[in-house]
Structure to design on (762 residues):
């Protein structure tokens, strides 16, 4: 931990000392260190977000940002957890041990929120940055340019060469007839090329073409052979290359527009997933630290890794069950969960057989505090909610009439009632989980800690 | 003025089902400003008694009454009780931070904390080691820092289980003397109970002594009363050579009996044969002594 001391600035050291002499609970949790280093990490990762997207063709993928932010944050939080676990207030016999435990749990939640905030901040910067790059174009202008490129591609070689065979309406037959007149559209083509060229010059990546170069390439099929040294016979393909590059550039711009458009939704999804993932990782890390402190390596393996592995196996089975076999909310899944839960608990008891009963209970409860919500939520989403899947169209009420081979589904008359029931179930389940956690599991855990550390052993 | 009794244990006893060992009911009174020594051979119930007094072990019988609390609120009792076990736990962080921390969680805050901890580590001769890590300290200093950490919390009861076990002879003497001096220098009531095999060291600093053998209390009273409780004088001799000559010397009308364990002899003499006359007698008989001690006022006489 000396490295942390070296990295700590003077003002933080002074504050740390002040807390040490005045507020031991805050001092021991090291939230000030977490906040400071998380801020530094946030600045670094935000700087990365700000500096990375140099052009539309090079803006970072979500996964890159997620990985970078995730890894750095987890490292910081991991360090903090070890640092904050140096002093165990329970063994020091403080006057309000329960208060401290509540504080400690809150601090882990806070750590998770810091990480989520960090991710949000970085993504916001990424959004602002992309907006800055794309800002000169509005969506309508982009659509216009996009349609022009599509025109060039879809109207064939003749159109691209600056002319096309005109079609005339024959009044007598009512048909369109092909005219022999070649209509040149130099002005139109030139204007379109200039627009595409400006866009391409500004945002295009790799091979760039000016408006004039695009125009030249389109009206003169020898342009490429002259400029690239290729033979006339492959000039056509060169032109196709040019169009391909243009399309690539346009599609990049299109992606960036979509990125900005979908950002709020993605952000929301990401933040939930990140908070959940971070909490899960923090929970497992916390367990590792606590177990290691209590028992040592053997118990660490048997006590933590086996149920954790079982949990991961369960997740894998669930994935296979739901995603590959397309089964939802079935009795089999519930049974699998129950069996795996029993196995997990068996692992706990088996692992701790040689040690103090009191500690076993504490470790079990400590783990339950973290694992129970995960199991409960999984159980809720996959089993209870599955039983109330509400279908807007009832496949059992197919009328038997078909239009172009597609069945017509009858609307499910119970849909709205089902949704209402599902919403009610959602609310009840949420409150039930919350109440169970707040009024049963957590107090029980605190009571056992108190019993272990404060009451005389029998 | 009557001394305040901080802990009164009445008839506390404990039986272990596994090995059948039983600590027979014992009364213990720990008074403010006093040091109580707890002596006895290994496995005779010293640690059991201390852990009961510290609130770590539930007694099967008897009552505990801590004067500084009403009833048995264990969190408050443990706040006021400092317990140092035989095996020390590893510390993390600097020892200085640990001491400040322990003082703060026991309500000694701000500048007072700083002053108090600095004074404490000076009193215990630890000033130059305060910035070291736990791993950098020798066994003796670890014990001293453990003591400092417990004292930083200003406990009313200090319970030490075999603190001298890993200390050298010089450190043993200074540890107990520093502890005694600290107790006499503070402005709050503190009672100390300390167990050890080094009974002479313990007896030197103790006001009160408890001797346990096989879970039974053989003596429980002031150290000074030990001498008065014996009608005989009791001497311990260590003689390496010529045991026959010694045996002949011990055939004296004022010598009641003696027992032998290797080179060590415990001699019971009539009250008329005080320490100096007994020593003169041995010198007259040309006995070469390795060691000699008057144990009339010591619990040494209870060892088998």
């Amino acid at each position: 931990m000396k490295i942390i001391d070296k990295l700590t600035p003077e003002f933080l050291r002074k504050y740390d000392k002040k807390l040490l002499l005045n507020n031991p609970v805050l001092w021991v949790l090291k939230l000030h260190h977490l906040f400071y280093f998380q801020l530094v990490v946030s600045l670094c990762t935000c700087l990365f977000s700000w500096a990375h997207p140099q052009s539309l063709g090079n803006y970072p993928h979500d996964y890159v940002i997620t990985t970078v932010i995730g890894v750095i944050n987890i490292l910081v939080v991991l360090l903090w957890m070890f640092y904050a676990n140096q002093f165990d207030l329970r063994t020091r016999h403080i006057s309000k041990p329960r208060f401290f435990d509540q504080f400690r749990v809150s601090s882990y939640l806070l750590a998770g929120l810091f990480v989520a905030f960090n991710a949000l901040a970085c993504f916001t910067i990424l959004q602002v940055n992309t907006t800055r790059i794309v800002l000169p174009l509005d969506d309508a202008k982009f659509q216009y340019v996009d349609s022009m490129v599509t025109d060039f591609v879809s109207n064939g070689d003749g159109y691209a060469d600056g002319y096309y065979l005109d079609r005339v309406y024959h009044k007598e037959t009512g048909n369109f007839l092909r005219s022999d007149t070649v209509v040149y559209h130099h002005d139109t083509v030139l204007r379109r090329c200039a627009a595409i060229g400006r866009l391409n010059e500004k945002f295009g990546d790799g091979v760039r073409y000016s408006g004039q170069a695009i125009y030249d390439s389109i009206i003169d099929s020898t342009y490429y052979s002259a400029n690239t040294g290729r033979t006339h016979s492959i000039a056509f393909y060169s032109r196709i290359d040019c169009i391909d590059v243009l399309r690539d550039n346009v599609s990049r711009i299109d992606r960036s527009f979509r990125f900005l458009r979908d950002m709020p939704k993605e952000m929301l999804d990401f933040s939930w997933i990140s908070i959940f993932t971070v909490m899960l990782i923090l929970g497992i890390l916390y367990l590792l630290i606590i177990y290691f402190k209590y028992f040592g390596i053997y118990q660490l393996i048997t006590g933590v890794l086996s149920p954790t592995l079982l949990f991961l196996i369960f997740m894998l089975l669930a994935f296979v069950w739901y995603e590959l076999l397309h089964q939802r909310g079935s009795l089999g899944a519930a049974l699998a969960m129950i069996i795996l839960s029993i196995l997990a608990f068996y692992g706990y008891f088996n692992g701790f057989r040689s040690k103090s009963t009191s500690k076993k209970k504490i470790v079990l409860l400590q783990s339950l505090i973290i694992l129970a919500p995960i199991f409960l939520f999984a159980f809720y989403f996959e089993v209870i909610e599955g039983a109330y899947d509400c279908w807007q169209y009832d496949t059992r009420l197919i009328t038997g009439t078909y239009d172009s081979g597609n069945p017509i589904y009858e609307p499910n008359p119970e849909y709205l009632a089902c949704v209402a029931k599902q919403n009610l179930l959602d609310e009840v389940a949420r409150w039930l989980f919350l109440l169970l956690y707040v009024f049963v599991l957590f107090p029980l855990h605190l009571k056992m800690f108190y019993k272990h550390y404060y009451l005389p052993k029998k | 003025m009557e001394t305040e009794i901080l802990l009164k244990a009445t008839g506390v006893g404990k039986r272990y089902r596994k090995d059948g060992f039983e600590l027979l009911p014992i009364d213990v009174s720990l008074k403010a400003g006093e040091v109580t020594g707890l002596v006895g051979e290994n496995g005779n119930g010293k640690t059991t008694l201390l852990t009961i007094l510290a609130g770590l072990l539930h007694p099967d019988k008897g009552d505990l009454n801590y004067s500084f609390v009403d009833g048995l609120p264990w969190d408050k009792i443990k706040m006021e009780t400092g317990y140092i076990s035989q095996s020390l736990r590893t510390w993390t962080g600097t020892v200085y931070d640990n001491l400040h921390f322990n003082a703060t969680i026991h309500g000694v805050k701000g500048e007072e904390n700083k002053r108090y901890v600095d004074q404490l580590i000076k009193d215990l001769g630890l000033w130059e080691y305060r910035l070291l890590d736990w791993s950098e300290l020798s066994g003796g200093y670890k014990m001293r820092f453990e003591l400092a950490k417990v004292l930083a919390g200003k406990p009313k009861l200090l319970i030490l289980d075999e603190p001298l076990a890993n200390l050298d002879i010089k450190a043993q003497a200074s540890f107990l003397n520093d502890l005694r001096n600290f107790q006499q220098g503070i402005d709050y009531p503190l009672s100390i109970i300390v167990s050890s095999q080094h009974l002479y060291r313990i007896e030197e600093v103790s006001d009160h002594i408890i001797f346990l053998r096989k879970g039974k209390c053989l003596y429980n009273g002031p150290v000074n009363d030990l001498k008065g409780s014996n009608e005989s004088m009791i001497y311990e001799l260590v003689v390496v050579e010529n045991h026959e000559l010694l045996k002949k010397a011990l055939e004296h009308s004022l010598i009641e009996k003696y027992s032998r364990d290797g080179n060590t002899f415990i001699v019971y003499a009539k009250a008329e044969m005080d320490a100096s006359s007994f020593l003169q007698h041995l010198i007259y008989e040309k006995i070469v002594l390795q060691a000699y001690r008057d144990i009339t006022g010591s619990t040494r006489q209870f060892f088998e």
Summary: The mean pLDDT of chain A is 62. The CA atoms of residues 33 and 160 of chain A lie 64 Å apart.
